[in-house]
Amino acid sequence: MDTIETIYNRKSIREYANDEVSDETLLRIVEAAARAPSSKNSQPWRLFLLRGRALEALRSDYLNGFDQGKKPSFEYVYNPERVPESYKARAIALGRAIFAHKGIRRDDTEKRRQHDRENFSFFGAPYLFILAMEKNGYAFGTFFDCGLFFQNLMIAIAAEGLGSCPQFSAMSYPDILHSHIPASSDLTFIAALPFGKPFAESSVNKFTTEREPIEKFFRIVD
Ligand SMILES: Cc1cc2nc3c(=O)[nH]c(=O)nc-3n(C[C@H](O)[C@H](O)[C@H](O)COP(=O)(O)O)c2cc1C
Q1: In a 3-state reduction of DSSP, which class is residue 115?
Q2: 191 pocket-lining for ligand 1 (C-beta < 6 Å)
Q3: How many CA atoms lie within 13 A of 181 on its CB side?
């Protein structure tokens, strides 16, 4: 696949097959991601891969937390205090579109809860990357560097014929994450990336998102 095609082929995958991904492929993905540029080559990212029993134990604690109504307690603020109206409108449109695709009605609280719950099972993925950074090492700039690394991960995963779904919701329970990831008390977790082979017959994986026409955000100045 050429690079542009791979970028177009990547989309969020929310249902997985259980196929094994070889260590060779896993390492190739991580090595490729680490080629991301960073200011002064500081490479502020840290990455964990959870799989097998370690992932099942985390998944079980996450689902228990969700089912018991554990309150999310994020380690960092994702959105500005006042979210611009244009961002809000797109978020609402996304919510409506995905619920419509899944046949979930606005007033169907149980199905909406199930939809939210899927985030806490990492969409059943057989592999989970967790991106982190040193607690005393983050600022807008280093977050930006980590975003470049994270995008590289997703593109490398897509280039290997696999799928992934970036997740902020998986940062809801940092206490649980810290308890499952040894020697992580000096780290802040940033995002999760469930990945694996997309489930072929999945309906949710057929969901696609639109983008604004580039005239909305792009201007040539000459
Ligand atoms: C940092 C980040 C966090 C996200 N968190 C979630 C999440 O918690 N749950 C989810 O289902 N999708 C999540 N998404 C996926 C977005 O909804 C998705 O990328 C967007 O709608 C565009 O769709 P696409 O990825 O299929 O192109 C997240 C994406 C990013 C970049």
Answers
A1: helix
A2: yes
A3: 24
Residue 222 belongs to a domain: no
- Nearest alpha carbon, ligand 1 atom 15: 166
Q: Where are the alpha helices (DSSP H) in the chain?
A: 3-9, 23-33, 52-67, 85-102, 109-120, 140-159, 174-180
Q: What is the pTM of this model?
A: 0.97
Residue 111 in contact with ligand 1 by CB distance below 6 A = no
For 13-57, the pLDDT digits (tens) are: 999 999 999 999 999 999 999 999 999 999 999 999 999 999 999
Asked if residue 54 belongs to a domain, the reply is yes
Element (H, E) at 128: strand 127-134
- Domain membership of residue 221 (yes or no) is no
Kindly give the distance from the C-alpha atom of residue 22 to the centroid of ligand 1, in angstroms, as a whole number. Answer: 26
CATH number for position 193: 3.40.109.10
Question: Number of folded domains in the chain?
Answer: 1
Domain region containing 23: 3-216
